[in-house]
Amino acid sequence: MRNTLATQPIFELSKPGRRAARFPKSDVPVRPIEDLLPERCRATTPPPLPEVTEPDVVRHFTNLSTLNMSVDTHFYPLGSCTMKHNPKRNERLANLPGIADLHPYQPDDTVQGLLQLLHELQGMFAEISGLPAVSLQPAAGAHGELTALMVAAAYFDDLGEKRTKVLTPDSAHGTNPASARMAGFDAVTIKSDSRGLVDLEDLRSKLDDQVGVFMITNPSTLGIFDDQVADIADLVHKEGGLIYLDGANMNAILGIARPGDFGADMMHYNPHKTFSGPHGGGGPGAGPICVTEKLGPYLPAPVVCQHDGRFALDYDRAKSIGRVRAFFGNVGVLVRAYCYILTHGADGLRRASENAVLNANYLLSRVKHILPVPHGDRCMHEFVATAGELKKTKGISAMDIAKRLLDFGYHAPTVYFPLTVAESMMIEPTESESKETLDAFAAALFRITDEATELLHDAPHTTAISRPDEVQAARKPVLKWTSA
Amino acid sequence: MPYTFNTPEDQHAMLDAIGAASIDDLFAPIPDSLRLERPLDIPAAMGELELTQHMQALAAKNEHAGQKTCFLGGGSYDHFVPAVVDAIASRGEFYTSYTPYQPEVSQGNLQVTFEYQTLICQLTGMDVSNASLYDGGSAAVEAVLLCMSVTKRSKVVTTASVHPEYRQIIETYFTHLDAELITVGSPAGIVSIEELEEAVDDDTACVLLQQPNFFGCVEDAERISGIAHEHGALFVVSCDPISLGQLKRPGDLGADVVVAEGQSLGSPMQFGGPYLGIMACREKFVRRMPGRIAGQTTDRRGKRCWVLTLQTREQHIRREKATSNICTNQGLFALRAAIYLSALGPQGLREASELCLQKSRYAIEQLVADERFELAFQQPTFKEFVIRDTKGKVADVLAECSESGILAGIPLSTWYPNLSDCFLVAVTEKRTKHEIDQLADSLTRASVDDSVVSV
Ligand SMILES: Cc1ncc(COP(=O)(O)O)c(C=O)c1O
């Protein structure tokens, strides 16, 4: 039963004189505002915000929340995003006042507990990646990519080399080439071969002394571990280049293989994926990066260091690229990652990855006869199926299937990414789902692919809205509410 | 392993279905030579009770703003957060969802984003807002990149009174781009207009101003806007959202792009993040804007609804030609800001900001009552101000205040060698008269102690 009054835009609920918050009278002597602020900068009226009561606010936003699917409420197999369970304990612990109510410029001696935590976390990230030097500063995965590429550029500067190119596979996430450009490099695309792995021929033909960095996602966005990775690293290193590992898929290999051991010089984690940070409807994330010893000096300042049992923020880093964000980083997200790692321990992390890979392979084995997986019968933590055949024979697209899944109470997989597979559906179940859920999801897919094409074209049928007109949205953008 | 379901029986059944002999078999694609042959060297697993105790012990080694009175600012503030913000933002339907790629099951997040964009436009006086960037600093750098792309110019002029860390971020981003950052001095606490006039020319992409500035002083934004526009440069304002209950909106002063740190709008300080990067601009720049944007449309039945739109700006479509590399943003903190602004409304925002203004003025008067301390800049201020210790012993004074339970201010020596005898004090609506009096007392005490020692 939807409360459509409450879910009107909040501006339509506004009535002059209503309010939800009231502040106390000033307990200090009050001066006329004219004495405090010159007229040229003084506003005569406050901004025209809506005027609503607390019950309005509560009912409005609570009703809106019920229009979302979420991990707490639904299976959310959104490939590449690792929508695993978000532990409630982590929320409570990150919100302890001794953590949430700390100012970033407090003196080090008043935040020893937090600095200790962050110092330990640097060590954990280094150990899990096999790359010893860590910066916790970047705010998300893409920000970590950019930061690491700037680290690479500073390193080449120091060597007196001018390297202009960053190579990214055609299956790479869009952030990779976008980060390359923002760091001042030209992004060059490397083809995938028929197995979905890096095409070594194409790589060789594009590799020269102008190449600064090869960015590889391994396991790849196709959910395959590229076993050529060590050879690729050798090739790139021989030309003097560096290997960047996009760590979005670390959930497949925790405690099993380490990027630093298979040739990576730099990487980022997405703690909001791998280490269970809630995705927050779009963010926040964090993008801590780990690099080799020789690249360590170029990391952003500050890093957390320890001297004689005291923890401190070290700003004194002569070769550092500088800052990439204000203050320390997305600490709240990092604290949750710390809690997640401590909850698991070494054995637990490994078993989380094993079950993530088991769940993905199981689901693959259940659905491959109706949704073929072009790159083989096995996968790591996710797989990319194609609706290409269905499109040809029945006119059913990946989008149709995605939309119809919503009617069955499942969030859709990632569709139309990676770009290298037509009508792609990227499915990542994660370890925090049961066999029963996977079976039920597979059964829904069986049913859907058997349904009348028309029914699918019009799906979803049971959600709050039917398919929105995205063309109209882009052609005549309405990006804010205005009174009628 | 509290979050996995698979029993040994499940695992067997699943392996059978897969046709694999063991879980290890599934990892066959990873060559043995690339595998880790030992357990990770990280602490042993903890149950929830142990973890809770461990975290409580760590938290107890910190002194938080409920224990030490916080007069620290500099871009992160101890403002009051109404309970309604936490209550709603802790709903799992909000915080455990992701980017609204499937609008039919994400109308909650999409409508919140649309409302957030509207609220930010109302607050700043701008035409359009995006769905959020990482924080105030990254929003500032994205804003100058936007201006460079619009104007096809590569010089950016800013002022020493802009947050020094924001300027450092821009420097970092500029290192390997064809771009130049020029910083005009602010010797009197606000930017030197003469110097600024000299620095801005026809190669200038934009002028980046902070209002109120890093020292808490109010700049003559309208004049500076005029200087920028005279040369065809754009005007970027980084503002304190709370100040807009009293100060003119940047959009009413000629700003082309407005950025802000949104932490003040209902989010905890959390040692610096996650926060909220606010960005709003004039309509004509919307297709150059970085980040996600929600827009209104209709569904097949003609019902009003919301979607992510103008996505051809973004990395997942345009890759290296995108306006930015940003993907994950700060959605949850945009939600918090939307709830906060709705809860306060125009009157609440006005009250909160007036309390900041009155209390900080009172604090200035109390602090400078001791001759040793003076207001460094004779300028109108909003909620922050710079105090000079005429004896130049800022570190000692602040340490003594900290001893007596007060985080009195931020030493400016970190960023401004010529202001090494100064510290920055922030007074939010939360600070009581009693706390301000205590701050004044403890500064006076520090000053007395100091004179005893130096005898
Ligand atoms: C493979 C891959 N790389 C990079 C990213 C970017 O990470 P973030 O969204 O945290 O910036 C993502 C996230 O969506 C991803 O899936």
Overall, the morphology of chain A is globular
By secondary-structure content and strand pairing, the structural class of chain A works out as: alpha/beta
**What is the string of helix and strand elements of chain A?**
HHHHHEHEHEHEHEEEEEHEHHEEHHH
Quaternary state reads: heterodimer
Question: What's the pLDDT, averaged over the residues of chain A?
Answer: 97
Q: Can you identify the CATH class of the largest domain in chain A?
A: Alpha Beta
Radius of gyration based on Cα positions of chain B: 26 Å
Helix content of chain B: 25-40%
Largest interface: A-B, 207 and 210 residues
Bound molecules: pyridoxal-5'-phosphate
Count up the helices of chain B: 14
Helix content of chain A: 25-40%
CATH topology of the largest domain in chain A: Aspartate Aminotransferase, domain 2
Task: State Rg of chain A.
Answer: 25 Å
Compressed to H and E, one letter per element, the order of chain B equals: HHHEHHHEHEHEHEHEEEEEHHEEHEEEH
Straight-line distance between termini of chain A = 27 Å
Could you give a short account of the major beta sheet of chain B? 7 strands, mixed
**In whole angstroms, how far apart are the ends of chain B?**
64 Å
Assigned CATH architecture of the largest domain in chain A: 3-Layer(aba) Sandwich
